[in-house]
Design a protein that fits this description.
The chain is mainly alpha-helical. It has helices at 2-25, 42-78, 83-100, 109-117, 122-151, 156-182, 187-210, 217-239, 244-256, 288-299, 301-328, 333-342, 346-354, 357-372, 381-416, 424-451, 463-479, 486-515, and strands at 258-261, 271-274. The protein is 75% helix and 2% strand. Strands 1-2 form a two-stranded antiparallel sheet.
Length: 520
């Protein structure tokens, strides 16, 4: 198994190093400076590999330290100078993390190369890389936990127990990932995990915020013991699981929106076809580019709308639950009213996470542009702009499903929790959420057309596109730290969104005909 991990790790670092080199070569300023034989330079390869390994080490600690600082800030805000609030939130967040971010089957590009082409044993690949993931997580949590814990006076023994609990709860719930993927579409477990996570999140925040209570330490000890017992059972099932190859086949399909047919015994025969099962006998009463796009949307409706519908159902459930809490528990009014009046900036990051623009544009590329961009007629200016306009309508429309639910719920929470002296706050709450949704829809589609990042294998090969994605994430994440009155922040945000959307559309209409092409 160690040999398997070493081979897979070499493939991963090589893939990342080549991606770094390719990204640098595609940055507009650098691509004219970097020579053609850049890949063959041993010094460049060493530097790229060093950057890849350094990035992995840094991410191990940076993500953990940021995560624990956020937990510490939340706990100190809710219950100042009470480290049990930190313990309470971290325990519940650890369970949530084990439910939603605990993958034994990781359908990455390097995994595909290892399993399909190098023919590494899928079971050994999964187990060795999952053990490596657990070791990284444990070391990162322990080191960062001791640092953060020292500032908020958490006993060292408790920090160590919390780190061990985080490890065991991941292992204890890891088998759920396999059972979820084993089912036809894995949808039931996914929805249950999300609902349970939302409930745990509500308990983690509302219990100390509203009732000024935290989890008794005895409850943590009981959960700790249960996690050990469940992890023993989970390890036994994971080690003896026999369908790793089948699960990888399914996850590769979902990752690429492609179907990979393999011979289970030696997987020598590889056949790639479209994953989408097209809806038959569909038609449209529209004309021109609207007709073409309408047919595409109808024939691929499951890919385009399924995830958004699930997302909307979960959001609706959370919103209804929140409204019930407001109605049934008057003691929550002050807390929730304060959130709606001062923390609208948090919803920028939330709307960024909820927006499906990036996923939908990838679906458009895989199931349409991937093939049509090879034809000259599809790269003509009138065709590109005509289809762009129709796609923009669809993206805005689809992303408005969850946005409307939030936009209606926030003013209701404000009203039921005590209201406001300025009636315009209700309108600003509604309009700002809608404008955020439209902003991210436009932003993602414009970035897709201006920087079209995919090559023929649907891999992202644009360094500029990755940089823009990173900047967008950092700006949205930074917004969480801004505390501005709702009216001021919301009004400013709406004005900015209008200006940005107008400029982005002008840029797309003038530049997209030259930039919208398949990457080499």
């Amino acid at each position: 198994m160690l040999k398997t991990f070493i081979t897979s790790y070499k493939v991963r670092t090589t893939y990342r190093a080549n991606s770094i080199i390719y990204a640098l070569k595609n940055v507009p300023i650098l691509k004219r400076i970097i020579p053609y034989n850049f890949y063959s330079d041993s010094g460049v390869k060493f530097l790229a590999n060093f950057m890849s390994v350094t990035g992995e080490i840094a991410s191990t600690f940076l993500t953990k330290i940021l995560y624990l600082i956020i937990v510490a800030v939340i706990s100190d805000t809710l219950m100042p100078e009470n480290y049990m609030a930190y313990v309470h939130i971290l325990v519940l967040f650890s369970i949530i993390g084990a439910l939603i971010n605990n993958k034994i089957i990781n359908p990455s590009k390097d995994a595909k190369y290892c399993i399909l082409y190098i023919k590494i044993n899928p079971r050994e690949y999964s187990l060795s890389n999952y053990i490596f993931f657990l070791i990284k997580s444990f070391v990162g949590m322990l080191v960062c936990g001791l640092i953060v814990g020292s500032f908020i006076k958490v006993p060292v023994y408790l920090t160590i127990l919390l780190t061990i609990f985080n490890l065991f709860i991941k292992v204890a719930l890891a088998y759920l990932d396999l059972t979820d993927l084993k089912k036809p579409k894995g949808s039931v477990n996914a929805i249950v995990n999300i609902v349970v996570s939302m409930i745990l999140l509500a308990i983690a925040i509302l219990l100390p915020a509203v009732l000024d209570l935290t989890m008794p330490i005895i409850i943590f000890y009981i959960l700790f013991a249960l996690s050990i017992l469940l992890s023993v059972y989970s390890v036994h099932r994971i080690i003896n699981y026999k369908d790793y190859l089948k699960l990888y086949k399914r996850t590769f399909i979902e990752m690429e929106e492609l179907e990979v047919s393999l011979d289970d015994s030696n997987y020598n025969n590889i056949k790639v076809v479209k994953e989408t099962k097209l809806e038959e006998n569909v038609t449209s009463n529209k004309a021109g580019y609207a007709f073409f796009h309408d047919l595409f949307v109808k024939r691929h409706s499951k890919i385009l709308t399924k995830a958004i519908k699930k997302q909307s159902i979960v959001i609706l459930s959370v919103c209804v639950l929140t409204l019930l809490v407001v109605i049934l528990f008057p003691q929550t009014h002050s807390f929730l009213n304060n959130i709606t009046m001062k923390y609208l900036s948090y919803f920028v990051f939330l709307m960024y996470l909820l927006n499906r623009g990036t996923v939908l544009t990838q679906a458009m590329f895989v199931n349409c542009d991937h093939s049509l961009l090879t034809y000259r007629f599809y790269r003509k200016k009138d065709v590109i702009l005509g289809v762009f306009k129709e796609r923009l309508k669809t993206l805005v429309y689809l992303n408005l499903y969850p946005a409307l639910i939030i936009a209606v719920t926030l003013p209701l929470i404000l009203l039921l929790s005590g209201g406001t002296n300025n009636p315009l706050n209700y309108l600003v709450l509604f309009i700002s959420i809608i404008s955020m949704s439209i902003f991210f829809s436009v932003h993602n589609l414009v970035m897709y057309y201006l920087l079209q990042p995919y090559n023929i294998n649907t891999e992202i090969k644009s360094g500029t596109y990755k940089i823009m994605q990173g900047i967008t994430y950092l700006v949205c994440y930074y917004m969480v730290q801004i505390e501005v009155p709702t009216f001021v922040f919301g009004a400013s945000l709406v004005v900015f969104n209008i200006i940005y959307i107008a400029l982005a559309l002008i840029l797309a209409y003038t530049k997209a005909p030259k930039t919208f092409k398949i990457r080499e």
